[in-house]
Design a protein that fits this description.
Helix 2 packs across helix 4. It is built from 7 helices and 8 strands, in the order E-E-E-H-E-H-E-H-E-E-H-H-E-H-H. It has one domain: Spore Coat Polysaccharide Biosynthesis Protein SpsA, Chain A (Alpha-Beta Complex). The protein has about 200 residues and is an alpha/beta fold. A hairpin with a 6-residue loop joins strand 6 and strand 7.
């Protein structure tokens, strides 16, 4: 008797690559946000640490940051979409856990929620927030990102447009979690954020 044995298709487990977007000009802040002091060290180091705490298998920095292995934007000053494109060019297929450099209250636990929900959706984000996000980086996403960076309409060249094109799902937030997603674009917001401390901050 001939017995047919069908190969069992094993799901591919993608690595998680953390990305800190740190290529902005900090125009509203008036000084380099990545180098703002946070708990005794530059904010960019704090963000790198929180990605590691969240379980990223590798971490990359977007922007001209030689001291942190930064990957310069192909077109400086062109925005986070182009920064992501430059970093993405160095990444294999993966889940990209993308955070901004100016979100000092962001916790590893909140990022782990994004990782845990990464399924078939092109992108997972929190309700009403473009960042942080967990983006499925594959051939389809690369093609979409390439189209957006070549678009003549500047409104299309955005992370929001990328999420809409890839398809995204949103996770809800309670009040404490929403507070973690404050981005410090001005001195006033920075002072308010500096007066807060998230649980486990000293361990990062």
């Amino acid at each position: 008797m001939l017995v047919m044995i069908h190969a069992c298709q094993i799901p591919v487990v993608l690595p998680c690559i953390g990305i800190v977007l740190a290529g902005g000009r900090s125009a509203r802040m008036g000084r380099d946000k990545a180098l703002l002091p946070w708990q005794g060290r530059p904010l960019i180091e704090r963000q790198i640490a929180v990605l590691g705490e969240a379980g990223a298998d590798a971490i990359r920095v977007s922007g001209n940051r030689p001291g942190y292995g930064g990957i310069p934007d192909a077109i400086p000053g062109s925005g986070p979409l182009f920064g992501l494109a430059s970093v993405g060019a160095t990444c294999p297929d993966a889940h990209l856990l993308v955070i901004p450099v100016d979100m000092p209250l962001l916790s590893a636990a909140l990022l782990q929620r994004l990782r845990a929900e990464a399924r078939s959706a092109g992108c997972i984000r929190f309700a009403e927030h473009v960042l942080p996000m967990c983006l499925r980086w594959d051939a389809r996403c690369r093609a979409i990102l390439g189209e957006l960076t070549r678009a003549t309409d500047s409104h299309v060249r955005s992370l929001r447009a990328l999420q809409q094109r890839t398809g995204f799902e949103e996770l809800g937030l309670d009040a404490d979690e929403a507070m973690q997603l404050i981005d410090c674009n001005s001195e006033e917001i920075w002072r308010k954020a500096s007066g807060r401390r998230i649980r486990g901050e000293n361990d990062l």
